[in-house]
Amino acid sequence: MTNFFYARLAASNIKKNGQIYFPYIITCIITIAFYYIMKSLSLNDGLDSLYGGGTIRQTLGLGCNVVMIFAVIFLFYTNSFLMKRREKEFGLFHILGMEKKHLMRVTGMETFYIAILGLGFGFLFGIVLDKVMFLLILRVLGREVSLGFYISREAIISTIILFLAIFFLIFLNTARRLGFSKPIELLRGGNVGEKEPKANWIFAILGALSLGTGYYLAVTVQNPVAAIAIFFVAVILVIIGTYLLFTAGSIVLLKLLRANKRYYYKTRHFIGISGMLYRMKQNAVGLSNICILSTMVLVMISSTTALMIGSDDLVSSRYPYDFIFYSKEKVYGQTDFSDREAVITQALENNGLTEKESIRLRTLEFSALKKKNGFTILKDADIEAFINDFEVLDFITLDDYNRTTGENRTLNDDEVLVCSNRVKMKSDLFVLDDFQFKIVEELKSFEYVGGGALASNIASSHIVVVKSEEILNELYEYQKEQFKEMAQEIDYIYGINVDGEEEAALNAYMEMRNGLNNLEVPENEVTGRVESKVEGAQGFYDIYGGLFFIGIFLGLLFTVAMILLIYYKQITEGYYDRERYVIMQNVGMSQKDVKASIHSQILTVFFLPLITAGIHLIFAYPVVEKILAVLNLSNTRLYVYCTIGCFAVFSLLYVAVYGWTAKLYYGIVKK
Amino acid sequence: MAILEVKSLNKIYTTRFGGNQVEALSNVSFLVEQGEYIAIMGESGSGKTTLLNILAALDTPTGGEVILDGENLSTVKEKQMSAFRRDNLGFVFQDFNLLDTFSLYDNISLPLVLMKKEYPEIREKVETISYKLGIHELLRKFPYEVSGGQKQRVAVARALITEPKLVLADEPTGALDSSSTDSLLNLFNKINEEGQTILMVTHSIKAASHAGRVLFIKDGEVFHQIYRGNNSNQEMYQKISDTLTFISTGGELDD
Q: Which of A77, A155, B27, B119 has the greatest number of C-beta atoms within 10 Å?
C-alpha cells in the first residue's frame, strides 16, 4: 500500500512538473539514442569489410567514450538544476511530515521512471533514427555501402548498463543533497543563485594546461600512423579544457562585464548578464556542450566532405593514366618490353579501345635518411633513426620530364628540379652523401605516370629531375653499392590513355592481367604488372563509401544533438526566466526592451562556442591533415576549403537555430 | 489639484463557458489629490485588486475612465504603456516581487536602467534613496539573504526611485511581521509627508489607520469613506474598525 503511494506520488510529481521534466526527458532520450547508435555502429560487422575497418572500429570505440563522458556531464547537470527548481516542493513535503528516507524513496521512484522512459524511447528513437539516416545517406551517396542496418543486442545491453549506472549516480547525488539539507533551506532553495566555484583559478589553470597540451599534441604530431591515437588523447584533453575554461572564463568575463558599470547598467545588458551570473555554472556547461558538439560536427563533416569531393582528384592523382604498366628494367639490362606491351595493345584492340596518348619512362626510387644537411644512405648512418626520418627519393631524367609535361626545360649537369609531396625541401641544394646538386626550382606539382603511387605515399617523398641518363645511372650504381641486396631497380613505366567505355576498360584490364600472367619470360626477368584507373576507382569507392557513410552519419547525428542542446538551453532558461520577466514587465519593461535584452544575451556569450569551435578546428588541422593523409587525401588545400565552407554553412545554421530558439524564448517570457 | 481621477469605473468579467457575467466593479468614482495618502479597504472578492490592476494599467475597465495627472489611461497606446507605467507609477507588492538574479542594489536600479538613465545618475539616486530608507548597508546582498521587512523596504526604494506621480501599494504589509509592519507604515507616512501621493489597497486595519483617507469597497462599489481630519492613528483605527463591523453586519451608513 505505502509502496503504491510513493510510486503514485512520484508519477504525479513528474506530471506536475511537466514543464521542466519534459525537456529533461527529451534530453535523456536523445542522449541514450545517441550513445546506442554510436555503440551499435562500432559493433557493426560491416565495418570489417571496409578499408581500415579495424582503425575505424577503434575510432568509433573511442568516440563512444567521448559520448559517454558527454552523457555523464550533461545528464548530471541538467538533473541537478531540475532538482534545484524542486527544492521548495521537497521542503514542503518535508514540513508536511515526510521523512528524508521517504523523500529519497520518492525521488528514487522518479529517477526510475525517467530511466525507463528514457531507455524505452531512447532505443525506439535510436533504432528508427539509425534506419532513417541509413536510408537517407545511401540515397545521397547513390551507391551501395557495405554497412548493413542492424539492431545490436550487445549495444543495447551496454547502453542499458551505462545509463542505469548514470541514473543511479544521479539518484545518489539527489539523495546526498536531500540528506544534508535543512527543510528551511529547501523551502528557499529555488531562489538562491549559484555560487562562484571556490577554486575558480585552479579551474582556469587546469583548463589552460589541458587545452594547451591537447593543442600541442595535435600540432606537433608527425607520424600519420600515430596520429589517430594521439588525436583521441588530444580530443579528450581539449574537451576537459573546454569545460574548465568555459566555466572559469565565462564567469570571469561576466563578472568583468558586471563590474563595468556603464556597460552593465544598460537596459539591454542588465538583465542578461545578471541572469547568466545567477546560473553561471549551468550557463558554462551549456555553452561548453554546444562548443564541443559544434567542433565534432565541423571536423567530421569537413574532413568527410574533403574526402568525398577529393575522391575524383584522388583517383586521378593515384592513376594518372587509364592503364599503367610497371616493370623492372635495370638489373636485367633489359630495354625491350615489346612482348608485354603487345599483350596490352592486343587487349585494348580486343575491347574496342583506341589509344589516345602514351608515355614510356624510367624512374629510380629509394628511401634515404633525412639529415640536417641533406640525405644519406650510408650504411653507418644512424641506425637508431626513426622510421619517420626516412623519406622517399624518386629520380627521373629531364627528357622524361619534358615529354610528360610537354615543357622544354634545360638543366646543367649539377642542377635538378624538385617536387615534394608533403614537406618542401626549402633549400637551394639537394645533397645525397657525395652528390650535390643545385635546386633550380621547387615545382608546385608534377603529375607523372609513375608519381601516382608516390603521391599516395604517406611518407614524405620528393621527385628529383636530373639532367641525363648518365646521372641516373650513377645514382643507381651508388645506391646499389650501399644497399647491396636491398638495392632498388630502375622501373620501366608505360602509361596509356584511351577512348572507350568503362565496361570495355574493365574487360581489357582483366585480359591484360591474364595475358601478362601467362606470358613466358626469360628466367631472370619479371613480367611486370598493370594497373587500371577504372578498376582502381571502383575499389576506391568501395573502400571510401563506408567512410563517407560514417562521417556523414555522425556529422548529422551531432548536428541534431547540437540543435536539441540549444533548444533545451533556451527552453529551460525561458521557463526559469519567465517569472522574472513578468515582474519586470509589471515594473515597466516594454516588449521592445525584452527583445533587446534577449538579443544582447545572445550576442554576449552565445557565439562564444562557435568562435571557440573555430579555434579548436584550426588547432585540429595538423592532426586531421595527417589522418587524411593515411586515407590518401593529400590535397590539404581542398581540406582547408571544405573546412571554411563547412564552417560558413554551419555558422548559418547556428544563427538560424538561435534565431528560432530566441523566438521560442521570447514567446515563453513575454506576458 | 487632483492627480488621479477615477470616473464611473465598471468592470464586468464574462466566464469562459455559458457567458455568466460577474460585475467586479460598478460605477466606482473618486478623486485623489496631489500628496494624499489613501487606503482602499474591502473584504476578499470586493473588487480591490481589480481596481488596483486597472489603476496600474495592467487591466482595462469595461466602462468609465482613469485620468492620471490629466492623461487618460485608455488613450495611452499599447506600445507606450510600459514606459507610461514606468515613468508615472511606482509599485509595492505584497510578495515584494524582487528579482533573485539581482543584488538589492540592482533591484532598486532596475526602473532607472529601463528608463535608460546613465550610470552616474543611477548611482546617485540609488545611494540617496537607500540612505533614506536605511538599507544602505544591505545593497550588496541578494533578496534571498535578507528578511521580509528588508525586502519590502527595497521594493519601496524601487518604487520611489523614479519619483512617480503615484505609488500603488498592494497589501504591502501582508507578508510582514508586526514590527516590520510598523516600520514600513512609518516609512510610508514619512514619504507621504515629503509629498509623495500613495494609494494603498489593504485589508489590514492597522495599515489603513495610517492613511489620510480610507475608502471602503463592498461588492464592487465605493461604500463609504473616512477622512482622518485631526484624528490620531488610534482614533482612526477605532473608526475603521467600527465601519468594518458595520459593513460586515450588513448595515447601511450615511455619512
A: A155
Find which of A185, A587, A670 to mutate to test the B interface (most B CBs within 10 Å of its CB): A587
pLDDT in tens, A402-431: 887 778 888 888 888 888 766 677 778 888
Closest residue in B to A264 (Cα) is: B119
Partner-chain contact B142 A266, CB within 8 Å: no
Amino acid at B107: N
Asked whether residue A484 falls in the same domain as residue A358, the answer is yes
Give yes or no for residue A236 having a pLDDT over 50: yes
Q: Tell me, what's the ipTM?
A: 0.75
Based on the fold, state whether residues A409 and A462 are members of the same structural domain.
yes
Q: Which three cell numbers stand for residue A61?
A: 570505440
- Asked if the Cβ–Cβ distance from A262 to B99 is below 8 Å, we say no
The answer to whether A568 touches A77, Cβ cutoff 8 Å, is no
Is A401:A465 a contact under the CB 8 Å cutoff? yes
Residue A466 structural domain: 323-532
Residues A104 and A147 in one domain: yes
CA A131/CA A527 separation, integer angstroms: 49
Of B85, B87, B113, the CB nearest to A266: B113
Assess whether A367 and A465 both reside in one domain.
yes
A313 and A333 co-located in one domain: no
B183 touches chain A (CB under 8 A): no
Task: For residue A388, name the pLDDT band (cuts at 50, 70, 90).
Answer: low
Structural domain includes residue A570: yes
Distance from CA of A84 to the nearest CA of B (A): 14
Query: Is A212 a member of any domain?
Result: no
User: Is residue A476 classed as helix, strand or coil in its secondary structure?
Assistant: helix
Cα distance from B81 to chain A (closest Cα, Å)?
Answer: 8
Residue A660 inside a domain? The answer is yes
Domain final position from A532, A549, A582: A532
pLDDT of residue A186: 67
pLDDT value at residue A452: 57
Paired residues of B75 in beta bridges = none
Interface test with chain A among B79, B80, B114, B142, by most A beta carbons within 10 Å: B114
Question: Which three-class secondary structure state does DSSP give residue A505?
Answer: helix
Do residues A83 and A179 make contact, with C-beta atoms less than 8 angstroms apart?
A: no
Interval B40-95: pLDDT, tens: 988 777 788 888 888 888 788 888 889 988 888 888 887 788 788 888 888 888 88
Considering the domain architecture, whether residues A451 and A580 belong to the same structural domain is answered as: no
Residue where one domain finishes, among candidates A532, A563, A589: A532
Residue in chain B lying closest to A262 (CA) = B119
Neighbouring residues of B35: CB distance < 8 A, sequence distance ≥ 6: B192, B195, B196, B197
Q: Are residues A567 and A464 in the same domain?
A: no
User: Which chain B positions have a beta carbon within 8 Å of A586's beta carbon?
Assistant: 56, 58, 91, 97
Q: Quick check: B113 and A267 CB within 8 A?
A: yes
User: Would you call B82 and A261 a contact, using CB atoms and an 8 Å cutoff?
Assistant: no
User: Contact A193/B123, CB-based, under 8 Å?
Assistant: no
Least confident piece of the model among A34-48, A100-114, A191-205: A191-205
